[in-house]
């Protein structure tokens, strides 16, 4: 079934974490699975780590079977997205009868729906997290009478750790957007890719002591610890103004 996503409407109201929405999604709802077709599913480094680990694939295998790799036009940063089926536009992780096959490890966009998260600066120039409700014709979850605070929805969907890593990645993306006129060299691009999306290669390089920022013991770190260290390294050193002569 192909449900094109051309009826997307955002509520005009901005929601804070303390505001409430009315929404429920469950197996058996009349629109079950309809949101899993024709999705533009771009994966953040943490989305990718969780999915790849759940599926037991290497980075290369994941890309061969499920995804696509390209370089962002403006930022020149690596992008990985999930390919929908060429026959019915379904997500490759969808089981029509049971729902999402990778539910416990589904990407942050699937967890956040029907909300969209963004940031604004308040009068004191502090960063504020806001949400908008997305309404699509096919999604009937909005008619379910279940009030829930945004902050509780975020917890219920297991988004806290995703937000932590996605915000680190977001800082990298913002930095590149601001300095998109400075091209990245091939070596820097490779390094950013390995640190953000290819932890197997990163572990290999740590073991063979090819990287000055990592000690040999770092290969014992968890995936999350390695990713955190890698993203901070990209943000603070690889993309530092001194390093790139900005
Ligand atoms: S990952 Fe799961 S929830 Fe997300 S679109 Fe695919 S099947 Fe649906
Ligand atoms: S309620 Fe919305 S999010 Fe849930 S299955 Fe239906 S279309 Fe998808």
What does this structure look like?
- By secondary structure, the protein is α+β, with helices and mostly antiparallel strands.
- The protein has two domains: 15-157, no CATH class; 163-241, no CATH class.
- The protein contains nine helices and ten strands.
- A three-stranded antiparallel β-sheet has the order 1-9-8, with no helix packed on it. The protein has a three-stranded antiparallel β-sheet with strand order 3-5-4. Strands 2-10 form a two-stranded antiparallel ribbon.
- The longest helix is centred in the last third of the chain and has 19 residues, at 160-178.
- It starts with 8 loop residues before the first strand and ends with a helix.
- The mean pLDDT is 93.
- Bound molecules: iron/sulfur cluster (2 copies).
- One iron/sulfur cluster (SF4) is lined by residues 36, 39, 41, 91, 93-94, 100, 102, 106-107, 110.
Give the secondary structure arrangement, pairings included:
Layout (H helix, E strand, L loop, with lengths): L8 E2 L9 E3 L18 E3 L1 H11 L3 H7 L1 E5 L6 E5 L11 E2 L3 E2 L7 H5 L2 E7 L5 E9 L11 E3 H7 L3 H19 L7 H12 L1 H9 L15 H16 L2 H4 L2
Antiparallel strand pairs: 1-9, 2-10, 3-5, 4-5, 6-7, 8-9
Helix pairs in contact: 5-8, 6-7, 6-8
The structure holds iron/sulfur cluster (2 copies).
One iron/sulfur cluster binds next to loops.
Helix content: 25-40%
Report the bound ligands by name, code or SMILES. Answer: iron/sulfur cluster
Q: Provide the β-strand percentage band.
A: 15-25%
Q: What profile does the largest beta sheet have?
A: 3 strands, antiparallel
Q: Total number of β-strand segments?
A: 10
The averaged pLDDT comes out at: 93
Q: N-to-C SSE series?
A: EEEHHEEEEHEEEHHHHHH
Q: How many helical stretches?
A: 9
Secondary structure class reads alpha+beta
* Strand order across the largest sheet: 1-9-8
The separation of the N and C termini measures 50 Å
Total tally of structural domains = 2
Radius of gyration from the CA trace? 19 Å
Q: What is the 3D form?
A: globular
Low-confidence stretches: none
